[in-house]
Write a sequence for this structure.
């Protein structure tokens, strides 16, 4: 199964992707996570991406498309769920071209819908594990031990781009450059729209219901 998960910053893409991976055994391909790993490893790509990420803008398409094509080519037979990619109409077109040339297609495009007030609360309360990438929230999804990752006990951190002023810029970037991607997929097929303002459990229950209905068609 190949899924594209769309949604504004903080909509819960990473959170839902982890559940999709557990249920369907596909690979989670998050462009943001891959970029953060490149930065941590101090690679050339990581250095190039840094200023764009820290200011809430987008990393140039040519760098992202190459990076994600590499990740997709290594994905297992079970498939993958794309999180944070494509994020511009140009990226979506490039992805489609490479899928066509590999004889593949995306099975489902899902859009997680939230409002700005919820987004702000989710971003400012988010804490992540710098080692395994697990995501928590100070109120909504607390770790078992305060400040420590449930999986490996690593000290949780706040992402530098979750400062309120950067979140505002990321939202502007989303409306200008990423929202049009929803229209692109609607014109070229269909988009499963999900109310993502509910609890993570309710959102994933609905998401699985929709994916299964699609698979049974
Ligand atoms: P990226 O890492 O992709 O960030 P994002 O899209 O802004 O999304 P987030 O990761 O912030 O949110 P999310 O939707 O994953 O929410 P989460 O599940 O964590 O990108 C970072 C940067 O990299 C970009 O700004 C850009 O510079 C660059 N980049 C990445 N991809 C690129 C591309 N394709 N092209 C160009 N540049 C690119 O949830 C958020 C919080 O809410 C958590 O605390 C979670 O516990 C909580 N939560 C989740 N769901 C719920 C729920 N249902 N109820 C209550 N709380 C919830
Ligand atoms: Mg994420």
């Amino acid at each position: 199964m190949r899924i594209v998960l769309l949604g504004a910053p903080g909509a819960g893409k990473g959170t839902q992707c982890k559940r999709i991976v557990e249920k369907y055994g596909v690979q989670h391909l998050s462009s943001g996570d891959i970029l953060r790993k490149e930065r941590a490893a101090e690679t050339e790509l990581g250095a190039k991406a840094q200023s764009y990420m820290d200011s809430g803008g987008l990393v140039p398409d040519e760098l992202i498309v190459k990076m994600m094509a590499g990740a997709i080519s290594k994905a297992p037979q079970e498939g993958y769920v794309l999180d944070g990619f494509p994020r511009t109409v140009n990226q979506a077109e490039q992805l489609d071209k490479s899928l066509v040339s590999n004889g593949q297609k995306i099975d489902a495009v899902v859009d997680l819908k939230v409002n700005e007030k919820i987004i702000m609360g989710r971003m400012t309360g988010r804490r992540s594990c710098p080692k395994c990438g697990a995501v928590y929230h100070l109120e909504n999804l607390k770790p078992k031990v305060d400040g420590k990752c449930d999986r490996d006990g690593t000290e949780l951190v706040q992402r530098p781009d979750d400062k309120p002023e950067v979140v505002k810029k990321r939202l502007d970037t989303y409306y200008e450059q990423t929202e049009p991607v929803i229209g692109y997929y609607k014109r070229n097929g269909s988009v499963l729209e999900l109310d993502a303002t509910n609890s993570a459990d309710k959102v994933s229950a609905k998401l699985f219901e929709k994916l299964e209905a699609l698979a049974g068609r």
In short: The first helix runs from residue 13 to 24. Residues 7, 9-15, 31-32, 35, 52-53, 56-59, 64, 84-85, 87, 91, 122, 125-126, 135-137, 140-141, 161, 170, 196, 199-200, 203 surround BIS(adenosine)-5'-pentaphosphate (ligand 1) (CB under 6 Å).
